[in-house]
Amino acid sequence: MRLSIVGFWCCWVVLLAGGMSYADEPLTLVPGEVSFVNDVIPLLTKHQCNAGGCHGKLAGQNGFRLSLRGYAPELDFETIAREARGRRLHLAAPEQSLLLRKALGQTPHGGGERIPANSPAERLLLDWIRQGTPGPRDEEPRLVRLEITPDQATLPPGESLSLKVTAEYDNGQRRNATWLTQFHSNDSGALEVDVDGKVTALRRGQTVVSAAFGGQVAVAVFTTPLDEPVDPSLFLPRHNLVDEHVFARLAELRIPPSPTCDEATFVRRAYLDAIGLPPTPEEVQAFLADDDPNKRALLVDQLLRRPEFVDYWAHWLGDLFQNRTERDHDVRGVKGVRAMHQWLREQVASGRNWRDLSIDLLTASGSCVEQPQVGYYIVTVGEKSIEDSDVADSVAQAFLGTRIGCARCHNHPLEKYTQDDYYHFVGFFSRIALDRHKPEEGATVLGYGTKQTVNWRKQLASQQEKLATLQAENGDAAAIEQAENAIARVEKQLADQLTAELKIRQPRTGEQLSPQPLDRSQLEIAPGDDPREALAAWITSPDNEQFRGAIVNRLWKHFLGVGLVEPVDDLRATNPPSNVPLWNALNQELAAADFDLRRIMRLIMNSRTYQLSSQTNALNVRDAKFYSHFYPRRLPAEVLLDALSQATGTPEKFEGYPLGVRAVQIPDPGAESYFLSLFGRSERTTACACERENAVTLPQLLHLQNSDNLLQKMRSPGGRFPQLLQDQPSDAAVIQQLFLATVARPPTPAEQAEIERLLASGERSEALLDLFWALLNSKEFAFNH
């Protein structure tokens, strides 16, 4: 068996430290004493008794319900030991306990046999029942960390090794938890792992094996390279740090990269990715004619300064920050959406760094007219209570790239986040007080407080107005005194509420929880301070890798087609980056650049990695995550529509907008457009990147091939095609211009000759129109490649 040096020594660690059988080790954390929380719950989880497809689903199974993966052990204990008069346990004859007999398959059970007879699992359950079924105890050791060895190794196809999982508790205890751990491979076609933690490499790639135990997770990364040697010169030259790390990984895997793309491919790719528009024929010709060896880098700099760059990236941020009208009882209207869109444009145009922009948005307050960024909270909070709203989920996903929504109802199945963690995080938004008004009645205002304080402020304003009227009219002294007393009472209520300790109720336990970040660190929040300010400081700290990684990963996916972490907004320990050194380098680069996103864009676009051809070779054709070639992808809905409009020279008409406004300039995703809806624009209802759908579907293909709108654009009297026929008497010139306007390259000599041959046998205008239609319906036009 061949292993890397790291893998070699790690395997010896496994053999030396974990060579004894489970029978030789204590089955429980405390020898001879079974803990319901630390032993029984992990056992039930390991054998999937409390999984979502069994007793862990919301309705339970056949009258027996457990909390999903054991997130509520106190409830599980009541169900197992107390429910139905304790019928599931037989303390006098533990072997006859229904819980045990069903698990062993000795009594009819819908789930069949879950635990083998005479196994460590059977012995542990029997010991627990024999000890009187002790329940959860407050003083029990708490699991704080999980360790997996080896945590990385190079493993040739066909070779195997065994993993060992060690659990560490807050009292310093450590135990071998391998037999109670659940294992999962993120690519079972490349590397499989069995229930005991034995991994076997099947084919080339990089595979992550996750180990889950007691609500904690740990991961091990395995690399399986090709057997064939690769010419080292193929991994040169390297333009910058991106290439250093990408080509180092490709060399390790022995995956040869594709060659660098040609100039025409690069200019189109760069335009589409940077400004959301293809280059014009004139721009393509100028770039191809330029003999400056540094012209690609110069083009990147030019594109990052273009006004279209501002349009495109303001639209991109609008997706991320869910800038839309509300579906019911909207209080901003399209005017408010446009105002926030303009605010985003100003941030992009001024080069506002990502950290400062994020702080402004996270701490937004005041009138949504004067402070348009307040719209973010109007959409994510809406009319719901803070506990029921989507604001915590949206903030975590947009700014930290993590999905915490599962923990609203139960502990996260793939992360360390518990239900308590979720509501601790929600606590940061517990002082958001939205005073909502219909647009025609005034601006909605976000203030500090709660819904109750909004009502008290209204009462206070009413009482103050009443007092002013009484005083102006020299009213009755008793009435004035009564009004002053009423004002004093409301002011006291307000003061008490605003300086009260910040707490939010955990719905399952009823416990009142204080605001706490997802890393469980403690933040100082003075009475009366807006907790969002402390949250914003924690999120945007230069030391917060998730904040940096979330935006870096989104940018990387935008330019390279596949995120270093996929899904792009699902950062977690069990979903590590495909290239950790590159991930770390880009994170450090962002911090060093003072969170200037253009710096990262420039770095990526100038890399050889970004400039590789999308044409594959025999050895990299299956690569989908190591960037050995450029990954083609369909143009986003708005970009595709704008490209069609530019290619035909006929702008799209949007209701309520002047002719000539491009799709990426439309602030509101609710603007009517069958094309944009069909091609998957984001509705911005959540922060999830999955809202934008870039898959190719049959209805899309049929629409392009049969669309009257497209034919009208092609034939429009003021459009490109009629103008070309009028200005260019030469068929060759028309053909070249049509190619440049659609696929941003001249036709090849073979294409030119074949097209001219076909033209000779048909009517010129219709034959050229057919060519134009074919180009607009080509994959080369619809994809960035």
Automatic annotation (TrEMBL):
Xref: Gene3D superfamilies: 2.60.40.1080
Keywords attached to this entry: Coiled coil
Pfam families: PSCyt2 (PF07583), PSD1 (PF07587)
Record domain BIG2: where: 142-223
Region (Disordered): 505-526
InterPro entries: Big_2, DUF1549, DUF1553, Invasin/intimin_cell_adhesion
Coiled coil (residue ranges): 453-500
The name this protein goes by in its record: BIG2 domain-containing protein
Organism: Lignipirellula cremea
Lineage: Bacteria, Pseudomonadati, Planctomycetota, Planctomycetia, Pirellulales
